[in-house]
Amino acid sequence: MKSFRLGVVAFATTLLAGSPMLADDLALVIGNSDYAHGKKLPEAANEAANRVAMTLDAAGYEVFTGTDLTSQDMFDILSEFNDRLPEADRIVIYYSGNPVSALRSTWLTPVDMQAVSPVLADFTGPSLDLLLGMAANSRGNSVVMIAAGEDGFEEPGFGLKNGMGPPAVPKGVLYLQGDAANFGKVMTDTILRPALSATEAAKRLEGRVEVVGDVPDVVFGPKNQAQLDAAIEAASAAAAPASDDSAATGREQRDAEAEEAMNLSRAERLRIQEALTVLDFEPKGIDGAFGPNTRAAISRFQDDQELPATGYLREGQTERLYNLADKRARELDAAARKAEAEARRADNSFWQERAAGGDEQGLRAYLRRYPDGVHAEDAMRRLDQIEENRLGSVSQQERQAWQAARRTDTPAAYREYLRSYPDSQFANAANTRMETLLGGADVANQRDQLAAREEALRLSRDSLQSVEQRLDNLGFPPGRIDGTVDGETRIALRRFQRSRGLEVTGFLDDPTLRQLVAASG
Q1: Percent of residues, the chain, with pLDDT higher than 70
Q2: Predicted local distance difference test score (pLDDT) of residue 318
Q3: How far apart are CA 321 and CA 262, in angstroms?
Q4: What would the DSSP string read from start to end of 367-378?
């Protein structure tokens, strides 16, 4: 079924500051699910879009809503919505569907989407930038929410991929993005609650959805709880009856009170997060703050131990957690020592077979494989001598350019040198040194993927500073300990990873964090 209608619908994310809502607050809700050539979204995504639309009605926004819209339908509703923007004080835009992206651009697809190229994507569905630009036109604050399906199309089109690209969020716009399967539940638990401040909502959302942009210092939801309850009940009427979870809610409340009575210090909270990390329950950072990620990690630990998974710790559970983590840390230490010995043997074997004789090609092959290896300094000294012997056979200008690149000794300096002297006798040396600085040939070739994996951890600056401090304490100095992962930190990470028998990349991932915590004792 396709629908395209106007209505007074409102949404609790927006900005009730205590005065009556005005008619010139606008919202747009699009819920696309029934794709003709792609994967359908789960029923939870449809219910969430409907719930948002009905809650908008409770808060008094004038709303444009559309369900399972074709390409023509989407541009029609956007055109009408755009005509009303000059009158808008506040704007809310909600889209649920299967996005596609290319480089830094994202398109929100209609249900009749077929494989296209980036050139035609703008004519198939609206871009995320278009919606963000519309939101930026309000006289007050605006909110854009994207509930994104994953792997929506088997073949989205040449040059396109499934999923969202990075959002370029304008000033004055709050941007929220999450997975379509659970985004609606997260919204219901947070910003759809009546009279919740923007600051508190953002705090509750941390770690659960992506939050980017300006958080307005106002109240989000409608004040009238009865009106909101009626709207949500109407939106859920077609769904299966909800189970009575009052017992579970009461247990969670009791556990929360029991944990509060324990009066955990920051040091104890840090230790709990460390133990969860070692046990692979991943609180996504060790900073002493029990946000949604830590609560979810505690729930996973409790579920694993066949305890009520409330996300709050009771007396006795902490000791069980510590004991299990200590045992796992000893196991990780033993495995790391064995893996380190194996890695050292492989390093020495490669050196003896390929580089120990001083052959230039073998020395460069060694550094590409082991940029921070046992014999890396020896290999660099030998190559420096080979390069020194060549200086007399090149022009003065080229010699000076090479010496300047060596003094700077950064990937950028070597790239600049190669642009000026692509056929230089030092071209191989420049490429080797670039790869060495970047962590080796394999790491240099997959740097984007490794960076994305590290970014997905969403570690706070405090957590990154803790990583640097741990590296320094373990004898792998990362340079300045400031929560910024720079070249020196990458080198320290590679050396630590090699010492623990991990994949040597210089980038953070879950196994590296576990080993760091285990090694720190």
Answers
A1: 84
A2: 92
A3: 15
A4: HHH-TTSTTHHH
Q: Which of 43, 263, 278 is nearest to 147 (CA)?
A: 43
Distance of CA 362 to the CA centre of its chain: 40
- The tokens describing 78, both together, are 């956007």
* More reliable by pLDDT, 188 or 168: 168
Q: Name, in order, each residue with C-beta under 8 angstroms of 208's C-beta and a sequence gap of 6 or more.
A: 178, 186, 190, 292
Q: What is the DSSP letter of 439?
A: T
Calpha distance 178→165 (Å, rounded): 13
**Tokens 């379509």, located at residue:** 180
* Residue type present at position 498: R
Query: Which tokens hold the place of 190?
Result: 């947070």
pLDDT in tens, 140-171: 678 899 999 878 888 878 778 888 988 888 88
What is the Cα Rg of the chain in Å?
A: 28
Q: How far is CA 39 from the centre of its chain?
A: 23
Q: Could you tell me which residue, 299 or 371, shows the higher pLDDT?
A: 299
Give a three-class secondary structure readout of 462-509.
Answer: HHHHHHHHHHHHCCCCCCCCCCCCCHHHHHHHHHHHHHCCCCCCCCCC
Residue indicated by tokens 């651009």: 105
Tell me if 115 sits within 8 A of 103, measured CB to CB. no
**Which of 95, 162, 176 shows the shortest CA–CA distance to 130?**
95
Q: How far apart are CA 242 and CA 188, in angstroms?
A: 15
Q: Report how far residue 61's alpha carbon sits from residue 198's, in angstroms, rounded to the nearest whole number.
A: 18
Alpha helical stretches, state H, 145-206: 183-189, 198-205
Maximum distance among all alpha carbons in the chain? 86
Collapsing DSSP to helix, strand or coil, 292 comes out as helix
- List the structure tokens of 280: 């692979």
Residue with tokens 């929100």: 108
Confirm whether pTM is higher than 0.90.
no
Cite the DSSP H helix spans in 305-410.
317-350, 360-369, 376-390, 396-408
Joined tokens for residue 402: 């090479």
Task: With beta carbons less than 8 A apart as the criterion, state whether 456 and 447 touch.
Answer: no
178 φ, ψ (degrees, to nearest 5): -155, 175
Distance between CA atoms of 443 and 450, rounded to whole angstroms? Answer: 8
| pLDDT above 90 coverage of the chain, percent | 16
Using CA atoms, how far apart are residues 75 and 1, in angstroms rounded to an integer?
18
| Mean pLDDT, the chain, integer | 80
Q: 96: which strand partners?
A: 31, 147
CA distances from 485 to 34, 451, 475, 506, 508 (A): 43, 11, 17, 10, 10
The answer to whether 520 and 474 have CB atoms below 8 angstroms apart is: yes
Q: How far apart are CA 510 and CA 22, in angstroms?
A: 48
In whole angstroms, what is the distance from residue 234 CA to residue 225 CA? 14
CB 520 within 8 A of CB 469: no
Q: Token digits for 409?
A: 């000794």
